[in-house]
Amino acid sequence: MNVEEIYKAMQEKLRNVVPEAELRYKAELAAEINRLKEEKNAVILGHNYMEPALYHFVPDIRGDSLELARKAAQTDKDVIVFCGVRFMAETAKILNPQKTVLLPAQKAGCSLAESITAEDVRRLRQMYPGVPVVTYINTYADVKAECDICCTSGNAAAVVESLHSDTVIFIPDEYLARNVALETGKHIIFPDLKGRSDNAADTDVDFQMIGWRGRCEVHEQFTVEDINTVRQQFPDVVILAHPECSPEVTRAADFSGSTSAMIKYVEQTTAPHYLLLTECAMGDNIAAANPDKEMLRLCSVRCPHMNEITMEDTLNALKHNRYVIEVPEDIRVRALRSVQRMLEIG
Ligand code: 13P
Ligand code: SF4
After folding, report:
1. Which ligand 2 atom is the nearest neighbour of the CA of 303?
2. What's the Cα-to-Cα distance from 83 to each of 91, 92, 97, 108, 235, rounded to whole Å?
3. CB 154 within 8 A of CB 142
4. pLDDT tens digits, residue range 270-310?
5. Could you report the per-residue pLDDT of 87-119, keeping only the tens digit for each?
6. 206 and 228, same domain (yes or no)
7. Distance 259 CA to ligand 1 centre (A)
8. Is residue 299 part of a domain?
9. Does residue 150 lie within any of the structural domains?
10. What is the pLDDT of residues 238-252, one digit of tens each?
11. Any idea what the CATH number is for the domain that residue 137 is in?
């Protein structure tokens, strides 16, 4: 599509979510990104949290962490531009060592990935010898390399159950671990690295999940009070919460699932109002794609990391071949085992 065609399509799709004054400029950026993408034989992957113009008009493939990891494993392009955060781009590199993987903004991190180190995992393994370690995909490659298998919000319970193990270490998201423990009927403890449990009475029992106290700085902010307040005002609202929210919040919500599961839920149901407890851009993206759905866009929390990725950065990534993601080969091959084992589960 040329600039004029993209501009018209943007006017049509984004009229309720992006100010008209921004659209022509964004259309020009999108056209230039598409041109360079062809020239460099690149594919652009975009996470569901990207801002609406980028999300709807730039990526070849959109999705949640699991879908994007699967697609990254299948591409035949020379260059992968990852419009998401660093751990996602690293996963693409782990799966595609021969390809150039670019992350458009250097600072796009994640509070969960930063909550745990490879050394922490080694110490957990010493404390619980022989216990398999599941890592949420929101970790860096060196942490994945110390673990047995990855999971995402879309398959966490299935991954834990696939291990058929009495006890499982699940890192680093405390709330996802608690939600999985509830879903799979498991008892969970949170030891510190000195060997103490936060619940002394539990140390003798045959506990089944051992968690870590990482949190998503976005999802930990949602509370049951938020839900109650919205329900008072909109009694017919359907509330969807990401499983990185606390179990109190996911239980008080009507549905909990990965970002793509939430999108599908809204697409496939008919409710007077929907509220998403997740990164705000997703509400805009769903509203743009489903003008007939009434999204309550009570936008209070943004992911500062996902928000680092802009259309300008994406264009510059292609133009200047930046920022190249590298994973040392010895770490990559070990991390790959954890990622592949997850992908084989389906
Ligand atoms: P999804 O895998 O559900 O897209 O989640 C990724 C993420 O970082 C949510 O905060
Ligand atoms: Fe990480 Fe939370 Fe941002 Fe997702 S929303 S990238 S888990 S900080």
Report:
1. 3
2. 13, 12, 18, 10, 36
3. no
4. 999 999 999 999 999 999 999 999 999 877 789 999 999 99
5. 999 999 999 999 999 999 999 999 999 999 999
6. no
7. 6
8. no
9. yes
10. 999 999 999 999 999
11. 3.40.50.10800
Amino acid at 52: P
Q: Which residue has the tokens 């200047």?
A: 320
- Of the residues 215, 230, 257, the one at which a domain ends: 215
Name the token pair of 1.
């599509």
CA of 263 to the centre of ligand 2 (A): 17
Report which ligand 1 atom has the smallest distance to the Cα of 138.
Answer: 8
Residue 236 in this model has a pLDDT that exceeds 50: yes
Residues 120 and 202 in one domain: yes
Position 263, amino acid: I
CA of 173 to the centre of ligand 1 (A): 12
138 lines ligand 1 (CB under 6 A): yes
CA of 204 to the centre of ligand 1 (A): 35
Question: Quick one: pLDDT at residue 200?
Answer: 46
Whole-number Å distance between alpha carbons of 21 and 13 = 15
Which of 61, 64, 256 has most ligand 1 atoms within 8 Å of its beta carbon, as the pocket-test mutant?
A: 64
Residues 201 and 233 in one domain: no
| Residue 90 located in a structural domain | yes
Nearest ligand to the C-alpha of residue 242?
A: 1
Number of domains in the chain: 3
